[in-house]
Amino acid sequence: MGNTPRATRRYSARSPLVGYLLRRLGTSVLLLFGVTIVTFALANLVPGDPIAAALGEGAASNPATVEAYIKERGLDQPLPVQYVNYISGLFQGDMGISLRTAQPVASDLSKAVPATVEIALLAIVVSLGVGVALGSLAAYRRGKISDQLVRVFSLIGLSIPTFWMALVSFNFFFLQLRIAPGSGRLSPALAPPPTVTGFYTVDALLAGQWVTFTDALAHLMLPVFVLSLFTIGLLTRFVRTSVLEVLDADYVRAGRAKGLSGPRLLFGYVLRGASLPILTIVGLAFGTLLSGTVLVEAVFAWPGLGSYAYNSATSLDLPGVMGVGLVVGVVYLTINFAVDLLYGVLDPRVRLA
Amino acid sequence: MRTKFRYVAAAFGLTASLALAGCAAAAPEASDSIVIDTAFTLETSDPGRNYVPTGYMVSKALYETLLDFAGSDESTPVEGLASYESNDDATVFTFTLKDGRVFSDGSAITADDVVFSLNRVAGMTESKANFLMNGITVTKIDDMTVELSTETPSLKLPALMTNPSLAILNSALVIENGGTTDDSDAAEAFLNETSAGSGPYILDTVNFESQVVLTENENYNGDEDIDFTRVVIRNVSEAATQKINLEGDDSQVAVDLSGDQVASLSDGINVFSTPSAQTIFLLINQSEEVGGVTSNPDFANAVRYALDYPALLELAGAGSEQATGVIPPSFLGALENGVDQELDVAAASLEASGYDGESITLEYPNDYPVGGVSFTPLAERIQSQLADAGITIELAPAPFTTQIDSYVNGTEAFSIWFWGPDYADSANFLPFSAGQKVGLRAGWTAEQDTDVVNLAAAAENATNFDERETAFSNFAEALQQRGPFVPLIVPGSNIATASYIDGVAYNSTWTMDIAELQAK
User: Fold this and answer.
1) B422-to-A303, B78, B93, B117 alpha-carbon distances in Å
2) Considering the domain B279-490 in this protein, what is its CATH number?
3) Per-residue pLDDT tens for B409-445?
4) 3-state SS assignment for residue A214
5) Are residues B126 and A315, on separate chains, in Cβ contact within 8 Å?
6) Which of A323, A339, B18, B111 has the most crowded CB, counting CB atoms within 10 A?
7) Residue B18: band (very low, low, confident or very high) from pLDDT cuts 50, 70, 90
8) Cβ–Cβ of A303/B126 closer than 8 Å?
9) Looking at beta carbons, which residues of chain A come within 8 Å of B205?
10) Which of A21-25, A296-300, B53-57, B228-232 is predicted least confidently?
11) Segments making up each domain of chain A, as ranges
């Protein structure tokens, strides 16, 4: 007992970063524990009878089936016992059985999460590239016509309802112009590649299935385009504001005075200085993309996390809802953790060691 | 630095090229393949455990049942794997298997397979389909003959034997893979990978959240002559997307289009519109404690005759019909005509009911359209029509999952709900009787209308089809005249296909028989 504080101090003194990482990890575990309590409590407080919803009229009128169903899922246990069972199941990778799909929630999510991550990753990469470029352009050309155009574009991106944009772009690019494929992750004639990562593009490449890869990539384009519009608008405005603030900074002036210009000044001085608020918004946007794709997934028949969450919620699939809640919690904690670490990489002033 | 920019530009160019190449690869044409878009309700490929619509559609293609229905006619079962005859009491049904029929592995279908398959469902109490076998005893007579018996007359039994949950499985194969006839059955995992039936298709792959692929059963020796050897059933939850996919030839069949969407389809699309088996109705609670003035039968009569049914039907779209009673069209005992608006009768009934201008709350689920009919505009129109008749209505919408509890518990005074059959037989509508499940939700106890109770019993226990039809008609007529329900609309079922596809026939259980889809 007496050695513990000294050990901790010594450990922290040697490596503040490791100490920080351990503290953050501990906090994250506690937060996840909190997420399980909140999702479990909320799921069980929702009015409605999930058993009747799952079984349907006919089966719900059959006492033998209702009894077997309740017993099989442990729903006859008191709520605290159910919660303990849920938590002990989580430690073994068991998130329960979905009342809607009758499959293990972990298995359902292992298919849904990669589907959403695949579009969200691509969308955030596209958004970052376009948003940084447009935001920087607008800042450099402040007050000029190009600045006005970029600001109007970003406003449009932020204002257009995603669901409407998804339907319109699907109709226009697929049905009218015939340059985009239909809904889903792959054309019906193709079989999904052998699962390694769950990303069809990556898995197809790993399996050497070139046609499947190009088809999967083509199916990604429209959902990514629609999802990116909002994020591009958001990033463009933040980048413009951040870059404008940095452009007047002394070190940028000094750089200019030394003769720096063009990409070197932009990437080496301006964007690096403006990167912290951009990084914050990218982290938040990525989290939103991962957890908020319900409507886009519905339009493009994308079997991802958003569709799974919506279907689980509307059919009172409580294990499904809790599983999604946990995944979203993990996603946000991981992103925040990564963003905090990146702060240190980008800004020496906040480094711990 | 310029070189780096060139690399970036080249990467973007490559990505765009790949995307375009993907687009080119995205529309493969295959005349022997068909793609069906539908909003999935699918949780297993084990027919004995399935009890949801998409699962039925899949099971119907993979497996066969003892009896079947011809096309959309669900009034009389026809031969499937077997023919049948019953005794005079309608308590013993003898099924004789057709000669020479085989499973997809080439093995013969025998009485042992029938006994195992039906007893498996009867023994798996955890199966949602278990109740279908309640009260039915299965006995093997010889290798090709099976006897099904019940304690009481059961003319619904032939209709039950059309249900894909009671499909006949290859017993040897299923037993080999964990199949039993009790709760220890462990064959579901196997049946989620491989089909073990005699239907025109076999299971290729299944993903319960995205798509099911079926391929031709090369050992099939039944009556169907399939045109499409590969079938992809995709989960497309958004009906607007189903419509675009169909118009863009990414799919060939769209199952869930609403009446409005059907009306705006482009040329070259076939639409098969027919009344579904769902009935949307008003519930008027007969319990004074719950409903107050609504418990007076005259109040229900006032509502019944105050409504303008054709005006309500305008909200429903293609294929819909006015509900003529609690039994929808195409079912035994369905009434020919519905109620007509008679404002004089409504006014007299309202006066007799003791209604004094108080506001009545109309509850309904506002996020659960049935057959494309949204309940909010329907409720608003009912509110307007009843206001014209002197009844003040206050609307109380709520999400389905929260609203349904008060409906099931019988605590709603006045509400809009719907009912669909669990299997294709008019016995499904007997729960509307006084003292039965739906009747009690309307606070209608058996003591309040013993005549209706007797009519329901007569329909339940009829021993020949003529007697049964009359009994169901009498039951439906009595409910129409004095029941606490006001049937409003039977929404349409709209199945749209590419112009070169024919053979669509709606069925209330399995939606459509994929094997019957034909290329023109």
Assistant:
1) 28, 19, 21, 20
2) 3.10.105.10
3) 899 999 999 998 888 899 999 999 999 999 999 999 9
4) helix
5) no
6) A323
7) very low
8) no
9) 191
10) A21-25
11) 115-350
- CB–CB contact A47 B232 (8 Å): no
Give the chain A residue nearest B182 (alpha carbons): A68
pLDDT at A231 over 90: yes
In one-letter notation, the amino acid at residue B255 is: V
Q: Say whether B401 and A48 touch across the interface (CB within 8 A).
A: yes
| CATH H superfamily, domain A115-350 | MetI-like (1.10.3720.10)
Cα distance from A79 to chain B (closest Cα, Å)?
A: 20
Query: Are the beta carbons of A217 and B23 separated by less than 8 Å?
Result: no
Query: For A313-333, how does the pLDDT look when each residue is reduced to its tens digit (9 = 90+)?
Result: 888 888 998 999 899 888 888
Tokens of A262: 């063009």
- Nearest chain B residue (CA) to A164: B240
DSSP string across A34-90: HHHHHHHHHHHHSSS-HHHHHHHHHHHT-HHHHHHHHHHTTTTS-HHHHHHHHHHHH
Counting every residue written for chain A, the total comes to 353
Residue spans per domain, chain B: 38-235, 279-490
Fold of B38-235: Dipeptide-binding Protein; domain 1 (3.90.76)
CB contact (8 A) between residue A59 and residue B402: no
Instruction: Enumerate the residues of chain B whose CB falls inside 8 A of the CB of residue A108.
Output: 208-209
Q: Which two tokens stand for residue A220?
A: 């990604």
> Which of B209, B243, B278, B411 has the most A C-beta neighbours within 10 Å, making it the best mutation to test the interface with A?
B209
Candidates B3, B183, B208, B408: best to mutate against A (most CBs of A within 10 A) is B208
